[in-house]
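Summary for the steering committee. The consortium agreed at its last meeting that each partner would contribute one worked example illustrating the joint modelling workflow. Our contribution is presented below. We chose a case with several input lines so that the handling of multiple components could be demonstrated. No manual editing was applied between input and output; the record is shown as generated.
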Amino acid sequence: MAEPGTVSEVAAAGEAVPPGGAGARRIADAFARRSGAAALMPYLMAGFPTGEGAADIGRAYAYEGADLVELGLPFSDPLADGPVIHAAGTRALANGTRLADALALCEGLAADLPVVVMGYVNLVLARGAQAFARALVDAGASGLIVPDLPLEESDEVRAACDEAGLALVPLVAPTSSPERLEAIARRARGFVYAVSVVGTTGERTSLCDHVEPLVERVKAGSSVPVALGFGISTPDHAAAAAAAGADGVIVASRLMREAADATDPGAAVAPLVRGFREALG
Amino acid sequence: MTVEAGVEHRFGPYGGQYVPETLMPALAELELAWVAARDDPAFRAELERLLRDYAGRPTPLYLAERLSEAAGREIWLKREDLMHTGSHKLNNALGQALLGRRMGKERMIAETGAGQHGVASATACALLGLECVVYMGAEDIRRQRPNVERMKLLGAQVRCVEAGARTLKEAVSEAIRDWVANASGTHYIIGSAVGPAPYPALVRDLQRIIGDEARFQVLERAGRLPDRVIACVGGGSNSIGTFTAFVGDPDVRLVGVEAAGEGLEGGRHGAPLTAGGQAGVLHGSLSAVMQDADGQITEAHSISAGLDYPGSGPEHAWLRDSGRATYLAVSDTDAVAAFRAVARLEGIIPALETAHALHHALQPDSSTLDLVCLSGRGDKDLAEVLDRDG
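What follows is the complete predicted structure of the assembly.
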C-alpha cells in the first residue's frame, strides 16, 4: 500500500531529518525534560463533556504540570476503548463534535504542550492519510496514535505522517511476541505506547506483573521513549509504571470519569493531575 | 505469515486486519489453526459427520413451482431453512466451534442480530460442551424474543448491548472488546463473512458448502447451470457461501440483495454495497460501509435484524468492483410483501432477510432459471411482521 521511496524510508536510512520530523522532535524534547523521572501525559476527549469543558480540561492539564497531552477524537465504533472512553466519545458526538472542532481544540492545546492525537483509522482514511496528517500538523499536533492500525497495515499512514512532520506512535501489547515488539519499535516515531493490560481502556485495581518485562523488551529494541497506558488509575500505579522503567505515563479513563458529571471539568481533574504529577516526581 | 501459506488477507484492496495490537497474535493463531484444520482429514470427517447426521445436510434443492409460475421462470430454492436451527448459520458455527475446541479454547463468544447466529452458536456449544456468551443489541432482543429464549434454553448467556442503535453493529463491537480482553482462552465465533483476516475467508470456507451442494444439485436436476444465483447480503455469509461455487462459471450472474430499508435516498437503509461511496474500516476490515464525511460509521436500518448492518464482507466489495457480482437493494415494504407471497404460494415462511432476495427473484428479468438461497426460516419474524401490519 505504501509508496516506495517516501520520506520515511529516506529518513529511516539516517538522513538529517528524523522520522516523524518536527512533531517527533517536540515529543522527544518533552520526554527529555523529565529524563530520570517519567513524563505525564493525561488524555482528554475532544468535545467532552462539552467543547468548552474540554478546553478547560486541557488548560488544567498544562497548569498542573503535564508534559504532553493526548487528545482523543470521538469515533462511533471505538473497539479499543472500555465503557468510560466509549461513553465520552458517544457524548462528544451527540454534542455535535466534528473533526474541525477537535482540530481547533488541538491548536489551543498545542500552544502549551505537545499534542498527540488518538484517532481510529477510519477517521484517517476518510480524509485520506496525507490530508489528515497535514491537517493535524496545521493544527499544531506533534504525534498521532491509531489504536486499530497494527504494524502490517501502517506503511501508508506512517509515510504520510513522516512527510507532514507528525510522529506516528505505535502501540505494543503484553501479547506482542518479541519479534513483533522489535519490528514495531524499529518503526516507532516519537515514543512507543505500551498497553499495560490485555483488554480495552479503563481503570484497573492494580498494575499487571508483566509491565516491567514489557517495558524492558521495548526499550531494548528502540531508541524512542516508552510510555505506559491503559489501566493507570492511581498515583501508585503511575509511580509503579515509572519504577518499571516507563519514560511516560498516560492516564485517561480515571480523568474522564471525573470530568463526566462535573460542573467545572477543569477544576475537577486538576487535583487528580496534581496527584499523578507528584507521584512521578 | 504469507497469503500463500495461509488464507486471503485482502480481496483486491479490501479486507486487512485493522484491530488493536493486542489481538494480532490471536488472529495469527486462528489463521494457523484453520490452515491446519481444513487440511486435516480427521477434522474434516468430524465436521462432515456433524453436518450430515446432526445438522441435516445436504439440504434439498427445491423447484418452487408456484413461485416459478408467478415469476415466469424456474426458481430453485436452496433450502437452508431446513437445516437444524433453521438457517445457514449453523454451517459456520459448527465449524468454528470445532475449530475453537481444537485450539484448546473452552469459552466461545458470538454476536447476533436476528438471533440466528446466536442460536447456531449456542447449539454448537451445547453439542460440544463449551461455554457460550452471545452479545445482542437491546433492540434486537426486543424484536427477536423467541431466539433469545432459545439461546438461554441451550445454555448460552445472552448479554444485552445498550450502545448506539442497540443492534448488530454494537453487538459485534462488544464481542470484539470481549475478545481483546480474553483472547487466550476464548474463541470468537464471528457470524458473518466480515471482520479482520482470517475471518472473511474462514467464514466463506465454512459456508461454501451451500453453493457446492447447490451447483451439483442443479446440474443433476435441471441439467444446466442457473442464469442467476440470488442471495441476500447483510454481512454476506449465505451469499458468499452460495456465490463461491459459481464464481468460475462466467455465464452465471451473481446477484446480492441488500436492505433498502425505508429507501436509499434518506440514508435509512442497510445497503453499503449498493449505495457505493468511499470504502471504510468497520470491525477490522476495509470494505463498503455507511459513513459520514468525517468517517463516523452511520446507523443502518432494516426491518430484518440480520441485514441491519452498515458494513459488508470485503470479498463482496471486491466482487462488486471487479464486476463479477452485482448488488441491489429491496425495501422493507417489498420484503414483507415477498414474505407473505412466498408463504401463500409455497407454504414456506422465509426469514425476512431471505424475503429481500425472494422479492428480487419475482421481478421481471431475462433469466429463465434462478437459484435462490433460502437462507433461513421466518418463524422468528412473525411478531415483527404482524406488528407492522397492525
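The beta strands of chain A are 39-45, 69-72, 115-118, 143-145, 167-169, 171-172, 192-195, 226-229, 248-251. Residues 1-16 of chain A have pLDDT under 50 and may be disordered.
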